[in-house]
Amino acid sequence: MLGAQWGDEGKGKVVDLLSERFDVVARYQGGHNAGHTVWIGDRRMVLKLVPSGILRAGKLAVIGNGVVIDPQALLSEIDSLELAGIAVQGRLFVSNRAHVILPFHRLMERLSEARPGRAIGTTSRGIGPCYEDKAGRCGIRIADLIEPESFRTLYLEHAQDKEVLRAAFQLGEPIDVLGTLQQYQEFGARIAPMVCDTAVLLNEAIQKGRRVLFEGAQGTMLDLDHGTYPFVTSSSAGAGGASTGTGVAPTRIHGVLGVSKAYITRVGGGPFPTEDHGPGGEKLRTIGNEFGAVTGRPRRCGWFDAPLLRYTAMINGFDSLIVTKLDVLDTFSEIPVCTGYRLRGKETAEMPATVEGMAALEPVYENLPGWCTPTAGLTHYDDLPARAKAYLEYLAERTGVEIGAISTGPERSETIIRPGSRLDKLL
Ligand code: GDP
Ligand code: IMO
Ligand code: MG
User: Fold this and answer.
1) Which of 29, 33, 291, 297, when mutated, tests ligand 2's pocket best, judged by the most ligand atoms within 8 Å of its CB?
2) For residue 41, how far is its CA from the centre of ligand 3 (angstroms)?
3) For burial by CB atoms within 10 Å, which of 38, 49, 128, 206 has the most?
4) How far is the CA of 395 from the centre of ligand 1 (A)?
5) Is 144 a catalytic site residue?
């Protein structure tokens, strides 16, 4: 299950709901740049690194090898879960092959984000630089973190390299290397009991007939390869990432579910063809409460982009789509939907590979009539107003993907699962 747009599609809510039918929930990429919101009654939880499945008693949660882990962020998330009465010990497993975010990574990110005209608008969590070190084969992994002696050697080498860069670019104060070394050794000791080879754990679970749900973070348009490069995150947010990020082969994964808003949002910089800078966008932001779960930044808002969804459906091979936040559109008398793009006066079906190409796209809209009737909290498809059904059917037809479920509010129960859909059969 993964994001079909630019993130924040409502994956947390959907995973929380679906995890009832699974035994294990595994995160496969990203880090604490993710913010997955789950409402249980009037309690709001925002999960960043820990898979949302942890909220269901008895379920196992796995942080796979493709995730980058800031140990301090992980431990404080665990502490706040335990404080909220959610037992984490014995249910959360951390891959020994996941990479560790170190203080220098945040420093390096400040450097790259300060380049004039080149800022990505990142979450400033050190995610990109940690993946850079992973690809550069000089990263430190969880298996190293939990071995105090070898960690010390690796950490001091790493600190030395980064200090050269920091001094060369006159970036902030030198990092207290020995102080942070000790701090990280303490983090390692606390994380150690949760660490294992999670590829073995997951494959054994599958062999025993246990059901595993893979939880994507970010969204396909933020995928390092397939998104709006360079305005992307540094990991494989698409379906392919589920295999590389967990060590579970594609042949063992039986379905791919996309999550999409009934409109679209984006946080940070980069092209966004259907962005609405006017009152429509403002109204979506206000009603949809579109402010980042991690950074609090206002999300850029716009209209459902069918060609973009056709593209992400192709990349991921969606079996079914879960459309969230339908209720946010309840008071709009007209709802634009982008049905195609024009590029320099000509229709185009392809997603341009360059930012310039993306920025030059002119969306072609069809205005659909709104339903102007509350849908919030509805749980049966037949109870939806006719125009809301027509809107959803239009999206399914234009994207070529069935809509297997519709979310009508932030809570678990505020969901319609369509009986007989491919989604229903996969669950
Ligand atoms: P994620 O990163 O994909 O998990 O999404 P976020 O949690 O960052 O953002 C989605 C926001 O929409 C959260 O505040 C959710 O509580 C909220 N949400 C999810 N589904 C619905 C829905 O169907 N209706 C409304 N009104 N809010 C929703
Ligand atoms: P969830 O899982 C929305 C965006 C950032 C920035 C770009 C790169 O909650 O959907 P990074 O810190 O990852 O290097 O930033 O990616 N971004 C997200 N946008 N939802 C997210 O996660 C995001 N995680 C990163 O805003 O544009
Ligand atoms: Mg989010």
Assistant:
1) 33
2) 19
3) 49
4) 19
5) no
- Which distant-in-sequence residues (6+ apart) come within 8 Å of 74 by Cβ? 32, 49, 50, 63, 94, 191
Nearest residue to 368 (alpha-carbon basis) of 386, 350, 384, 387 = 387
Looking at CATH, the fold of the domain delimited by 99-194 is given as Adenylosuccinate Synthetase, subunit A; domain 2 (1.10.300)
Q: Which of 8, 133, 144, 223 is catalytic?
A: 8
Of 32, 36, 105, 158, which one is the catalytic site residue?
36
Distance CA 20, CA 356 (A): 44
With helix as H, strand as E and coil as C, how does 20-43 read?
HHCCEEEECCECCCCCEEEEECCE
Q: Closest Cα to atom 17, ligand 1: which residue? A: 410
36 counts as catalytic: yes
**Could you read off the pLDDT of 218-248 as tens digits, one per residue?**
999 999 999 999 999 999 999 999 999 999 9
For residue 149, report the distance from its CA to the centre of ligand 1, in Å.
43
Distance of alpha carbon 418 from alpha carbon 293, whole angstroms: 29
Smallest CA separation from ligand 1 atom 11, residue: 10
Q: Does domain 259-427 have CATH number 3.20.20.70?
A: no
| Closest C-alpha to 80, from 103, 100, 55 | 55
Q: Is 37 in the pocket of ligand 2 (CB under 6 A)?
A: no
For residue 35, the ligand 2 atom closest to its alpha carbon is: 9
- Domain boundary assignment for the chain: 99-194, 259-427
Tokens for 379, please give them.
Answer: 């749980």
Summarised one tens digit per residue, pLDDT across range 296-320 is: 889 999 999 999 999 999 999 999 9
Residues 191-219 pLDDT 10s: 999 999 999 999 999 999 999 999 999 99
Smallest CA separation from ligand 1 atom 2, residue: 8
196 is written with which tokens?
A: 């294992």
C-beta pairs of 190-195 under 8 Å, 24+ apart in sequence: 190/71, 190/75, 191/71, 191/74, 191/75, 191/94, 191/142, 191/145, 191/146, 192/146, 193/89, 194/92, 194/93, 194/94, 195/93, 195/94, 195/95, 195/96, 195/142, 195/143, 195/146
Which pair of structure tokens corresponds to residue 294?
Answer: 């991690």
Rounded CA separation 222/268 (Å): 11
pTM over 0.90: yes
